[in-house]
Specification:
Layout lengths: L3 E2 L3 E3 L5 E9 L1 H4 L9 E2 L10 H20 L8 E5 L6 H7 L6 E3 L6 H14 L5 E8 L1 H8 L15 E2 L2 E8 L6 E6 L14 H20 L8 E4 L3 H14 L8 E3 H4 L3 H4 L5 E2 L1 H17 L5 E5 L1 E3 L3 H5 L6 E3 L1 E5 L3
Parallel strand pairs: 3-4, 5-6, 5-7, 8-13, 11-12, 11-14
Antiparallel strand pairs: 1-2, 2-10, 3-9, 7-9, 10-17, 14-17, 15-16
Helix pairs in contact: 2-3, 6-7
Amino acid sequence: MNKHLGAQSVWFENVVSVNAAASVVGPKEGQGPLGKYFDIVCEDNLFGADSWEKAESEFARRGLDLAVKKSGLPMDNMDYIISGDLLNQSTGSTFGVIDTKRPFFGIFGACSTIGEGMALGSVLIDGGFAYNVLAGAGSHFCAAEKQFRFPLELGSQRPPSSTWTVTGHGAVVLSNLGEGPFVTGATTGKIVDMGVKDQNNMGAVMAPAAADTIASHLRDFNRAPDYYDLILTGDLGYVGRDLLYTLMKDEGYDISRNHKDCGIEIFDRESQDTHSGGSGCACAASVFSAYFWRKLKEKSLNKVLFVPTGALLSPTSFMQGENIPAIAHAVALETSR
């Protein structure tokens, strides 16, 4: 049976249930509007480690382990772990899963990584190649600033368009049995390059990719935006959100009435001085795992299109003057099948 829809999408014939979700975040995230929903809020950004990079691995280890424990299954029942982060060669995830001794796919989608992981995990389960898949994504503010921008000690002024990389990790357990919410379809994003070079304006970088993927999803599934109770983007922030609305109207869709953005939800930009909002692999992953998965589980939301977004830059590409391309992956979640 052909499960491919349109140019970029797939639908899932078999059960893919999001049976558990876990979130581990830093102190700044814990002080934000969603603070009470996170499973673990650490007291400091080092999380007991002696470097920011090692701390990022500790966030991954704790987040992935907690998601499995909440699922009621042992780690040995995870057929695959799929995880990624922002560090070079995804070392945050590599050292975070090293003790699990489970088959591992290390992936990179920048801040869209959790969407990529959930989509790939769902494909494995729907295709009969796995019963249980653990998917996660994480990031660390200090490690990201060190790698992509300026040394923290420099105290550089952040422009209003900048976003704050979320410190933390979010993880989900996907299974072929369960009561939902269910992953019913996915739309794989295309790389979109609009010529933006400003590493302090991730919203402008990622909004075109989000618009492209959302519009493709709606066309492939022949749906209107109001099919979903919520269209949830990853980390566009305030700048990217406004641009997304404009781009979607150009595509013939108005999503302003049922859209939220994880980068806006996670921080209070006035009291926490986060400018345009939050970003990083942990942004969409932790916000979905902590809050919106719960909303689906309790059925106060029944249909959600989850669209994490990612800016595909590296220190090398940026220093060589390349544009910053972007990608977004969409995962359709519903409480019934």
